[in-house]
Request: fold
Amino acid sequence: MKRIAILGSTGSIGTQTLEVVRENGDIEVLGLAAGSNITLLEEQIRQFHPRLAAVWSEEKAIELRTRIADTDTKVVSGMDGLIEVSILKDTEILVTAIVGMIGIRPTIEAIKAGKDIALANKETLVTAGHIIMPLAAEKNVSILPVDSEHSAIFQSLQGNEHKAIHKILLTASGGPFRGRTEEELLDIKVEDALKHPNWSMGQKITIDSSTMVNKGLEVIEAKWLFQVDVDQVQVIVQPQSIIHSMVEYVDGAIMAELGTPDMKLPIQYALYYPHRRYLPGERLDFYSLGRLEFEKPDMRTFYGLALAYEAGRAGGTLPTVFNAANELAVSQFLNRQIKYLEIMEIIEDCMQAHKNIENPTLQQILDTEAATYERINSRR
Ligand code: NAD
Ligand code: MG
Reply:
């Protein structure tokens, strides 16, 4: 039996991880953590019998404790609770499916405790990759990518030497607004931005996909996971999301992973790496597919992607500013407090105002996050 814990078990990746667990039948779930959906968390506790469950607010934790008083699951709360789930004795893998840079501290603590990380939580690597990757190497811990593109790259790297990598070809669907001009983005409503053409995901990443900021985060994520320069990562729009990403080697050979869009594949691959398991679901049929299309991304209209390259190249605290500004701007957009294009304006403004700190400590990253929020909140 493999033993795991999941941060963000009630979300899109979290629930699909539990489906993979259910379908395989040989993984034990020792810990679950969620934000506020205690109804779903209660169902998960009754089905998977974890030793420990964490909820963000103590108020909800109290309610959950009453609801599951007949079970053996202990309920904890807050950051301490998240960390307790992350370092649970006996777990081999922590699945980080929480959204946002709140995942940094639990991820670091899990690595220190020797847990392998199945990483979906890209914001953590974007902001603290320079701390996480060396720490993982020191602790002999694997960081297994769950993000579909990074899983595809990871799969395309198997059996090849790192020094033979020439380029990473990171594919993007282009999102629901591909081909639109800036003018055509002026009046985008929350409902429009939440319609992704190929993937069904959490709200934050769905908005990020529409602005291409998600692809920008993924460029920086790839830099850390695969130890390449951001300028070795080329974004290619592949609207059908069939090619999940590729690696170009020094001899010109290109390796890719293709398939129907289904997050269960990268989740399962991370959980069982290096083994492959049967996965039910729709298979790619090239006869009915007919053709694949490719485009260059429009980095002038979707300049959040260009800003990500700038942040990734500079390193230091600039990627934290890029990420934190986006996190708050997206939540303000979802709350209908700002207009769609203001998301990118806010990121640019915060980045321009920032004085970069090289090789920041965890505290400096968290301070930069707070300062970025403060700047945005004092905008009006
Ligand atoms: P989601 O919004 O569906 O789920 C987020 C989860 O995190 C929920 O369980 C929520 O309860 C939990 N959470 C949020 N704040 C919390 C807090 N303070 N304490 C404890 N738990 C908290 O998000 P998602 O789409 O599943 O994405 C999760 C992560 O995976 C993100 O970093 C995203 O970029 C990445 N990712 C997602 C997909 C996808 O298909 N959904 C694909 C690639 C990468
Ligand atoms: Mg992705």
User: Anything to note?
Assistant: The chain has three domains: 2-145, 150-261+282-302, 315-380.
